[in-house]
Amino acid sequence: MAQGANSFATFLILCPTSFFLGVLFSFFPYDFPVLWTSSPATAEFYTQLETHLQFIHSAPPIVPRILHIVIAVGLLGFFIKLYKPSEANALFDGASLVLYMVGITVYVANIVKGLRVVSAGEYGQYELVEGETAVGTKDEGAVIGREDSLRVLAASNTILALVLVGVLVLQAGQWYAERKEKEELEKMNREREEKGRGNGRHTSPAGGGKKKQ
After folding, report:
1. For 137-167, what is each residue's pLDDT tens digit?
2. How far is CA 205 from CA 42, 132, 194, 202, in A?
3. Which of 16, 31, 194, 202 could staple 154 via S-S, CB 3.0–4.6 A?
4. Distances from the Cα of 19 to the Cαs of 100, 167, 208, in angstroms?
5. Alpha-helix residue ranges (DSSP H) falling in the chain
6. Cα separation of 38 and 160, whole Å?
7. Distance of CA 178 to the CA centre of its chain
């Protein structure tokens, strides 16, 4: 793949990944007291967190559409880089694409469905998609309550952030590997040229004339 197309595809990957990390960072003030503090969060805090999540889920349709477009832009970048891939593309970009798909799975399976549950306020039910309802009982042990549901959402945000950081690390590793490879090739070319010039200086000129008697 041409260097210009490769750089543009990398740009298409890094921008959505960084954008999603910024979105997740905006949730960090809410996720931190839920997951990373020794003292338990108060009921008032959970109410505030629930209100925040309900506000996010009730955003105008243009907001999730933009989010999904940004996701598609990242996938487009991967497809461009993996079209006729080199060895480095297959290794680094293949692993990055796997992490990116894991992030999409976490987003769809945990975050989107969790937001639907929080917005509906129907904790203790399995209704995550319209038309599908499976009410659980306390004896089943599979139904989680309000606080646990909010903890699961916070943990999903953390998992998604780690996955996206992994994408950035792999892309940075690919850039470093390609840079080192380019430097090695340039060094080898310089040594070859210097060796060629040295051999030329030590070669005697041919076709010298004969000495007259």
Report:
1. 444 445 578 888 899 999 999 999 999 999 9
2. 92, 91, 20, 9
3. 31
4. 13, 13, 73
5. 3-35, 43-57, 62-81, 87-88, 94-106, 113-120, 146-201
6. 23
7. 20
